[in-house]
Amino acid sequence: MHSLISIALLFLGASLAASLFLPDSLELRQIMQRYQDELEPNGTKADVPLRSRRAIRWSDREEILQLHNKLRGAVYPTASNMEYMVWDDELEKSATYWAEQCQWEHGPKDLLMSIGQNLAVHWGRYRSPAYHVQAWYDEEKDYTYPYPHECNPWCPERCSGPMCTHYTQLVWATTNRVGCAVHTCSRINVWGEVWENAIYLVCNYSPKGNWIGEAPYQTGRPCSQCPPSYGGGCRNNLCYKGDPERHESPDMNEVEKPQEPVQPWTTPTKPQPKPSFPQKPANANPSSTKTTRTTYLAQIIKCETKMRDKCKGAACNRYNCPANCLNKKGKVWGTLYYDVQSSICRAAIHYGIIDNNGGLVDVTRKDNFPFFVKATKNGVESFSKYKPGNAFTVSRVEEQTIDCYTTVAEICPFKASTSHCPRVFCPANCINEPSYWAPVVGSNIYGDGSSICRAAIHSGVIKASGGYVDLLALDKRKSYAGTLKNGIQSESKTNTEGGSFRVFAVRE
Fold this sequence. Notes:
About 20% of the residues lie in helices and about 25% in strands. It has 12 helices and 25 strands. It has helices spanning about 15-20, 25-40, 60-70, 90-100, 110, 130-135, 165-170, 250-255, 305-310, 345-350, 410, 450-460, and strands at about 5-10, 85, 115-125, 175-190, 195-205, 235, 240, 300, 315-320, 335, 335-340, 360-370, 375, 380, 390-395, 400, 425, 440-445, 445, 465-475, 480, 485, 490, 495, 500-505. The chain has a 6-stranded mixed beta sheet with strand order 8-9-12-15-11-10, with helices on one face. α3 (about 60-70) runs parallel beside α6. It starts with a strand and ends with a strand. Its main location: secreted. It comes from Cyprinus carpio. Keywords: Disulfide bond, Repeat, Secreted, Signal.
């Protein structure tokens, strides 16, 4: 059983319309900024964007936006001035703030003077946000469009059903920006009845519509009365001037469609670590729930293993040194910066990263170092070399316990050759977290705004019970392909910002 209720705000009093209409006003921007700030911890602006807690996943965002434009371009009678709608991050943030309040009413009051707002709530079986958008539009069957000759000077309002204002806001011609949020409310009072675990959708619009006495759009040949700022552009019956930061592509239409995973991406300067065991076959079933541990970031080496033997690129990743390397024969040249002919493990002991019990070492290469100075440290004697050569540094591998929402963008964003991430421990049951708060973008290689733990489950590195994960931060990718694997549907995404990452199993 499920319930669906939608309400829309309608201002009474046409005489107030001009004074309340504040598109792109200073007041609107100030209000938006205040709610943006309130979304961040302690009322202060965070250094790293909280992308892991974004209140709507990318696929739902694209589906909502595309459905809005599809419906706006299909109105009858046809519209001559209907503008193409784009997504607005500030409207999304204000919608997020209000959705998290779990109040079944329009708000906040001081923002409603500048924006339009549609609300929907349901509980029971799953309903996508687009389901509610379509329900808003379906109020059209009860709405009678007021033709110009009927507007003298004010247009009559003719709605034969309970409400038509969701529909009129959705198709208001001059409303060209939308931002929405979805929130799961543990308890919400819906007209006197308390619903538990209800899904609450808030969509904010700007410039606002639903002005008393006005028609939602002008009728006529599509795009024949577009504002001059559109330069005569028309797309699918909508006034369109293009947006260099948003390009529609087939990927944006694949909202929940499973895709074949892409092969791991590499760059010439950042090779992927060599697996200790065979890779998973390319024809493996991407929807399989069986977890596999086939690749490891931390490579097991010997005490005598030289950096020259293991590192061929700028990022040298992670190594696991055995015990009792202190008295082995592997030579070390340099101090702090070590020649690539040095033993990795004995250089790590020399610098104090590990002791004679062995352990994990992160290594970073530096090309063309001028000279190497000898020193005796921690029981290891190093040698001098007074000529230039390729070098490396060693660093300690930190361990960090994270939650289901933590992202690589927060703890170790990609920084060329110095990107070393901690070994992280994921808690149990991250598979059950909503994708709105813990999204997963991509397959094999993931967008750095993805939930680390859910990406690790998706890739088969850990099970739903949690565990340790190694991470490798990578540079940005042009696109990601979503797949259904191990009970998690990842998202497709194009034209992304930020970096990417891979997840690796940890040997038990």
